[in-house]
Amino acid sequence: LIITRIRERGVDENQATSGGYLCGLQDFEASFLRLIEKLTDGCVIEINETGTCLKFKPGLLIGGIISGVHDCGTTRCIGWFIEGIIPLAIFCKTNVSVSFSGVTNDSLDISVDILRSVTLPLLQNFGISGVNLKVAR
Questions:
Q1: Neighbours of 103 (CB within 10 A)
Q2: pTM score above 0.85
Q3: What are the E-state strand segments in 35-95?
Q4: Residue 31: which H helix or E strand, with range?
Q5: Strand 17-18 vs strand 22-23: parallel, antiparallel, or unpaired?
Q6: What is the pLDDT of residues 70-98, one digit of tens each?
Q7: Is beta strand 64-71 parallel, antiparallel or unpaired with respect to 96-101?
């Protein structure tokens, strides 16, 4: 979806699966889609009742300050969500500011501490400066 959004093309997926054995979108995937919706203007996301059909039409990447706290749940680490929005945030019209709540470290995903100390400083090598990640526990 991230590449689809950047290329400004839609998606019409009739058999959404996760991990090959669970049919339908998982809670963290639906939460990520809601986060993408918050970063865009004109984005259309349609999911059927069972979560097995997804239609995604990208809008304009606006960015800005996302009001409220985005709840990432406990299934995936906050780092999973941040990794997903970094490529999108680069192309947003305004700076992105998001507050997350959820798990900061688990065995599946990169921790927010690694993102803050390794990944975000690497963005400077690509001319992207002023990236900041604050962790409040």
A1: 19
A2: no
A3: 40-41, 44-47, 54-57, 60-61, 64-71
A4: helix 27-39
A5: antiparallel
A6: 999 999 999 999 999 999 999 999 999 99
A7: parallel
